[in-house]
Amino acid sequence: MRAVKDVVKRDPTLRIFVKRIGLNVPMEAIMDVFETFGKVLDVEENTNVGLTRSVFATFFHQDAVHHALTHAAPIILNQEPLKILPWRAYDEPDSLDAEAAGGSRRYVSFFSLL
To answer: How many Å apart are CA 110 and CA 99, to the nearest integer?
Structure first.
């Protein structure tokens, strides 16, 4: 199972980044919220410390990622709306930074997940 996790985690189309999670919310509650979109492989806590925390959620299927990113109603956890974004590697430049450095803009299409 460890080998499967390593392979899946390398695929950015299977991951999302979630912000605005309260510090007192247990990881089980976070996983339960995202299980409604599809089978969750793993939820990892972002190690940056702040007033709220963020996590990386990894799903088994791209459909689950698509549903989480395009969910119409806000997802509320502990009376706080969550901000859900597509996962992006730390070393991947922001599209605006790349353009300022003379590079081209890079876009993530949610429709490519279909």
So the answer is: 21
Instruction: Evaluate whether residue 114 is within a structural domain.
Output: no
Euclidean distance between CA atoms 4 and 61, whole angstroms: 13
Neighbours of 71 (CB within 10 A): 13
89: which 2 tokens? 């590697």
pLDDT at 1: 65
Task: Note whether residue 10 is domain-resident.
Answer: yes
Q: What pLDDT, on a 0 to 100 scale, did the predictor assign at position 5?
A: 65
CA distances from 84 to 1, 32, 66, 98 (A): 27, 15, 11, 23
Note whether residue 98 is domain-resident.
no
Q: Is residue 22 part of a domain?
A: yes
- Asked whether the predicted pLDDT for residue 106 surpasses 50, the reply is no
The CATH number assigned to the domain holding 39 equals 3.30.70.330
Number of domains in the chain: 1
Residue 81 DSSP SS3: strand
Question: SS3 helix, strand, coil % of the chain, rounded to 5?
Answer: 35, 25, 40
Does residue 78 surpass a pLDDT of 60? yes
